[in-house]
Amino acid sequence: MLVSKHDIEWLINVIAKYERLLPLPLLQSARDLIAASNYSKSVCVIHPVDIKAYDSVRKEIPKYLNPTANQKRDQYRNCFWMWPDHKYNPYKMMVVYCAPFCQHMILATTDFDVLNSYDEGRDNDGQCFIDQQPIDAIRIQCSLSYPLRFFEELDGPIVKAQRMEDKWDIYAFNDVFYFCSSWLNNIALKAGFEQRPDENRFNVTWIEFSESHHMTNAGTVTQQVDFLIKTMLGLRLPLPVPLEVEPTVKEYSRYAGTVYGSFAYFATNEDTTKIRLLESGTPSLDEHTPMAMDKETEAFYQSKFNK
Questions:
Q1: What is the pLDDT of residue 77?
Q2: DSSP bridge partners of 39
Q3: How many whole angstroms separate alpha carbon 97 and alpha carbon 80?
Q4: What is the pTM (predicted TM-score) of this model?
Q5: Rounded mean pLDDT of 195-204?
Q6: What Cα–Cα distance (Å) separates residue 73 from each residue in 56, 69, 70, 101, 165?
């Protein structure tokens, strides 16, 4: 009997990505099957005696790829609401501190098509997306503006996912940002930009998104693009949550982890575009006063993060 190359490569990929999630007996069984197979790029043959073992391993592995099964029982216990006047809240808006969940979660999938898309995307330089659009694209106008000096050289991949907890790949070609799902290797958002050296500004003037995009409100989509651009610059700022999401610590943290993955530290349903960038690159609420965390504030978050 024949086991296809597709089947064995699924096994090889799963072990490479999720070794830390699998119990040792199951991991060893999978490795034994791969070693016993006559693997080549064209065909993979397994002796009939191993077919039942292969089927058993194939059915057992997905049980351990469920991220909720591999996280602590109370996985949101260190996430919490912060009022605008909280001593350690520099953003002056109502936020959920979701980093203890989002930065510790382990994401995985049992969908082989998604695994394939993710793998293909790691070698993708983004040029295949040039002039492409999100499915059933809707275009809106916007007016996002940033200091020009952080965007003077934009061409090709800017952000590439290194692990499945990284949910976004970001590219720039011909004055257009392409914000792509790392899992699906497709365009989620496009945004057109222009550089204005005379004003020392970098402006995003339009956004395209799919009609089926999880954010359908134009204002929230604009906030999402703004957040991704700021995160692209290495800033850790509140991410936008649609009003449809139930305002609880659990639901905000779950949404943040699902949509933004490793980008998620704080979540809010307030207007995140109010946080502007100064010429220094420091965020500010009034375009004058830098919004920075002092050592005491950083120590506070670190104490909550590591619990």
A1: 84
A2: 44
A3: 5
A4: 0.76
A5: 94
A6: 28, 9, 9, 12, 20
